[in-house]
C-alpha cells in the first residue's frame, strides 16, 4: 500500500477552492483554515490537508446562505466600524 501524497492532495484542494471562490486569495484560505493554530510552523501536511478539508466543507455549507456581494459588504462594514460608531453616537 502506498503512502498518501498529502502535498498533491493539498494542491488539488487549493485548485478546487480557487475555482469555487476565485475572488479569495490563497492567504485567506490558509488563514481561515488554520485560524485555531497558534504555531503553524510545525503543522504536518496531513494536518494541513485535514484543516483545509474542514474549511472547504464549511464554505460549501455556507455557500447557499450568503453570496459574494454580502461577504464583501460585511468586510467593508467591518473596516469602517469607527465611522459607523461615530454616526450612531451623533444620533
Chain-wise SSE layout:
Blueprint: H1 6-20, H2 26-33, H3 45-62, H4 68-79, H5 81-90
What is the β-strand count?
A: 0
**Looking at the chains present, what oligomeric state does this protein adopt?**
single chain
Provide mean pLDDT, rounded: 85
Shape: elongated
Structural class assignment: mainly alpha
Residue stretches low in confidence (pLDDT < 50, at least 5 long) are: none
Radius of gyration: 17 Å
List the helices and strands in order: HHHHH
| Total of DSSP H or I helical runs spanning 4+ residues | 5
Instruction: Kindly state the percentage of residues in helix.
Output: 55-70%
The span between the termini is 69 Å
Residue fraction in strands = under 5%
Q: Major beta sheet, specifics? A: none
How would you portray this structure in words?
- The protein has a domain at 6-66.
- The chain is mainly alpha-helical and 91 residues long.
- The protein has helices at residues 6-20, 26-33, 45-62, 68-79, 81-90.
- The protein has five helices and no strands.
What keywords describe this structure?
5 helices; 0% strand; single chain; elongated; mainly alpha; 91 residues
